[in-house]
Design goal:
The protein is mostly beta strands. It is about 0% helix and about 55% strand. The termini are close together.
Length: about 800
């Protein structure tokens, strides 16, 4: 790939409203302001870019671009001057001899590309943004490429390397103590959560992701119906250079009872122009084949061969200079013959799972002559899921493990049609500067489900029958929901250094049928304005949740009949006890959270950036089922109510140092608590039994230390083309609940914990050039200390193996090879 030059990334367009017919002696008027527009290589506006104006002999002026990528300044002299523009995730752009007679300028910032060689244009370094009121943290392409996170085939595994983000044993993400479905997961501005469960199940190739934004508090009202924060994935787009990248096209192996095949996960991206300077394409495809091996299971029944794939195809066309249209299509496929295989779940008791999902979407941006910008999008998420048991032998739950064929066969379809539009209004002056934006959201969710349940047998330790659950035949069911939202937000700068961001959101949906108003306000104060030394932030807001449909589907699964047996396992102790799940929409309220926070950002000596944040979140009116027969009853009618309350508190402090060449070190400590007054999640099928009680949530981690980075490998002869990379993660072990063979809670819920999790993973990466392409070969020793870090535990007090941990992480050597090629 050719070396980049500074002026390759800067284009200046000149528009003159008039010209002089000759030189006429006159009294000079006031100097005219200069307007600067900052766009990326595809002509999209770049918001929040840092602009420095340097006139000869004068102090540098610092500015930030607004929603439309614009800012304005007035020159004090008539000499050529210097413009420097940068933003993390982009290469810095510099104009050394700008003409002071030109009053309408355009500067292009190029996104950082996946390159391994040194380039003459430096990537912008992270700093303090005084006009960012939320606690937004961004991982740019540099972090996505360089942080050696485990199982890098799944971009979700990178998210726990944000402080305050926890990944549970199923791979789902929890932001600031929240349920996974309470976090709004976006791909290029579209909600990609499951329409029913709310889980983040759709996948995109890690090499297709350009940046990831995380916001846990003080996030603006445009992000509605989520109490847990926002995770926004932004994917790449082609430019005027043809680019080809390939990663992990060599299979990996593992040492578990001998050397065996582990996985093959090739990823390929290809992008370039369709019409230079007018239209571009991007395609990111990944395929995955895993040989999952569980050493605790018998030979011949200890593996699962998993297949997964995804493809994201995008096109952007600049129809006119004022109208930009982009379209995309994300496809996902998943096939797992023995889904859920673990030391406690043998092959026969798993299910064969097949999932197909897709998301086509369209986005249009139109810029009006007065500078207003209208951004509109339309997307359609569709997910088809099937779970099929193996055989038809009786399904039995022993105090040690499952056995027999899984009891439930399930087929489901769900879809979400989502439309959104946002109008960015040009700045207005009234007691300071105001930047307004207003928007509308419209979602329609539909789903259908078919289930078929066989009996479930609960066995004692001596393998006699303790309880049998049977389920009546359930007719296919379906449902839908319509969600409407609108918002208005202002960014008010009454004077230099102070920014206030008030906002109001309105929401309504077809199930709850209550008008919901969400007022929020946040502010930042930067005593030293834009020199990036200090920033104070604070905010408080009311956040409403979306209607969690999974709770409603439990009532559609109807009932369960439980028959208890005497010690001989044959004689019933009485007639079957019926358990019914019921939901009445008119009696429900939408879950809401009061979220307030304070934050401090400070630049320390040595260009170390310190960040501290405290979040307190109080959620009320959450969905939970309540047994109307009393807290001690093990059967009866479970009514869906809005009575759950959660308390989440997060205090974190982190520090970051960025070095020349883009090298970086990061470290953080987080103290967090996630508690609920409804720790037992009652289900119509297999469910914990017993009185409801308060306890820590399953992902509660009071203490956590996190660090990652990449540096030159400081060994003579290796520094130029070798890098040292690492991750370090230590946190308190997750809580778990003790039960007996009947699945009744024993003692206090979540009163036991897994061992502390410890993982230090160092590695080396070698960068080299071969036959016109650049290669990166990385080797990482994951969990080099060989800490056990178990994933499962026997929590049945009736078992001699109670409290025994299994499925240990152990030490592993992983490798990654990447090829990067480009052509003008």
């Amino acid at each position: 790939m050719p070396r980049l030059r500074c002026f390759d990334s800067v284009t200046i367009g000149i528009l003159l409203s008039g010209c002089a017919a000759g030189l006429v002696a006159q009294t000079p008027g006031p100097p005219s302001p200069t307007s600067l527009a900052v766009v990326d290589e595809n002509s999209l506006a770049v918001e929040g870019a840092r602009v420095a104006i340097g006139e000869p002999g004068r102090e540098e002026i610092s500015l930030l671009t607004d929603y439309a990528g614009r800012c304005a300044f007035t020159l004090k002299g008539d000499q050529p001057y210097r413009i420097r523009v940068d933003k993390p995730g982009f290469y810095e752009a510099v104009v050394d001899q700008a003409d002071p007679t030109i009053h309408d300028l355009h500067v292009t910032l190029n996104h950082v590309q996946m390159v391994l060689q040194q380039v003459s244009v430096a990537a912008s370094a992270p700093g303090i943004n005084p006009e960012q009121v939320s606690d937004k943290s961004t991982m740019s392409l540099q972090e996505i490429i360089n942080i050696p996170y485990p199982d890098s085939r799944d971009i979700r595994n990178l998210l726990p390397f944000y402080p305050g983000v926890v990944q549970d044993s199923s791979g789902q993400i929890h932001v600031a103590g929240s349920e996974t479905w309470a976090t709004l997961d976006l791909l290029d501005g579209f909600d990609i959560r499951s329409p029913v469960s709310g889980n983040l199940n759709m996948r995109v190739s890690a090499d297709a992701v350009r940046s990831i934004d995380l916001e846990a508090t003080r996030y603006p009202v445009e992000f509605g119906r989520s109490t847990g924060g926002v995770v926004a994935f932004y994917t790449g787009m082609g430019d005027n250079t043809f680019r080809f990248n390939a990663t992990d096209f060599i299979p990996s192996f593992q040492d578990k009872n001998g050397i065996r095949f582990d996985k093959f996960v090739p990823r390929i991206t290809f992008s370039g122009p369709l019409a230079r300077d007018r239209a571009w394409f991007f395609d990111g495809v990944e395929a995955e084949y895993d040989d999952i091996y569980i050493s605790e299971l018998p030979s011949g029944a200890d593996t699962n061969h998993l297949f997964r794939g995804s493809n994201l195809f995008k096109v952007q066309a600049n129809v006119t200079p004022a109208n930009i249209v982009s379209v995309g299509l994300l496809l996902n496929g998943y096939h797992s013959p023995y889904d859920g295989l673990s030391p406690l779940v043998p092959q026969q008791s798993t299910t064969e799972r097949n999932t197909l999902s897709w998301l086509p979407y369209l986005r249009d941006q139109y810029t009006f002559r007065n500078g207003a910008l209208l951004d509109s999008g339309l997307g359609f998420v569709h997910i088809h899921d099937e779970f099929d048991p193996h055989g038809d032998t009786p399904f039995e739950i022993t105090p040690e493990f499952y056995q027999g064929s899984y009891f439930e066969r399930l087929k489901s379809h769900s879809q979400r049609i989502e439309a959104n539009t946002t109008l960015y209004i040009p700045p207005r002056q009234w007691a300071g500067r105001h930047d307004f934006k207003a928007g509308l959201d419209l979602d329609h969710i539909g789903y259908s489900e078919r289930t078929d349940c066989a009996p479930v047998n609960y066995l004692r330790e001596d393998r006699t029958l303790l309880r049998q659950s049977t389920f009546p035949t359930v007719a296919d069911f379906s449902g839908h929901n319509l969600e409407i939202g609108a918002f208005l937000q202002d960014r008010w700068t009454p004077f230099s250094g102070l920014l206030l961001e008030p906002g109001l959101r309105f929401d309504w949906d077809q199930i709850i049928r209550e008008p919901l108003l969400s007022p929020r306000v946040a502010a930042t104060y930067s005593p030293s304005r834009l020199d990036g030394a200090t920033k104070l932030s604070a905010g408080v807001g009311l956040y409403y949740e979306h209607t969690q449909l999974e709770y409603l589907t439990r009532a559609m699964n109807s009932s369960r009949n439980d028959t208890y047996f005497a010690a001989d396992g044959i004689t019933p102790r009485g007639p079957p006890l019926e358990t019914v799940f019921s939901a009445q929409n008119g009696q429900l309220h939408e879950a809401r959270a009061i979220n307030w926070s304070v934050g401090l950002e400070q630049r320390l000596p040595g260009s170390i950036f310190l960040k501290a944040n405290y979040i307190q979140k109080r959620l009320s009116d959450g969905f939970t089922y309540v047994n109307l027969n009393g807290p001690s009853a093990l059967s009866g009618t479970y009514q869906l109510t809005s009575s759950r309350q959660d308390h989440d508190d997060v205090a974190e402090v982190d520090a970051r140092r960025t070095f020349a060449g883009g090298y970086s070190l990061f470290a953080a400590y987080t103290h967090a608590t996630a508690h609920t007054d409804a720790a037992i999640d009652y289900m119509p099928t297999i469910s914990l039994l017993g009185p409801q009680q308060g306890a820590p949530l399953p992902w509660d981690t009071p203490n956590r230390v996190l660090s990652w980075g990449w540096l030159p490998f400081l060994v003579p002869g290796f520094r130029k083309s070798w890098d040292f990379v690492y991750t370090l993660d230590w946190h308190t072990g997750f809580p778990y609940t003790s039960i007996n063979a009947n699945y009744q809670v024993v003692g206090a819920a979540a009163d036991r914990r897994f061992p502390d999790y410890v993982s230090f993973s160092p590695g080396l990466e070698w960068r080299f050039h071969f036959h016109g392409s650049y290669f990166g070969l990385r080797g990482v020793i994951e969990n080099i200390s060989d800490s056990k870090n178990p994933l499962t535990v026997n929590n049945v007090v009736d078992s001699p193996q109670y409290g025994t941990f299994s499925e240990f992480e152990g030490r592993a050597l992983t490798a990654r090879i990447r090829i990067i090629s480009s052509k003008k």
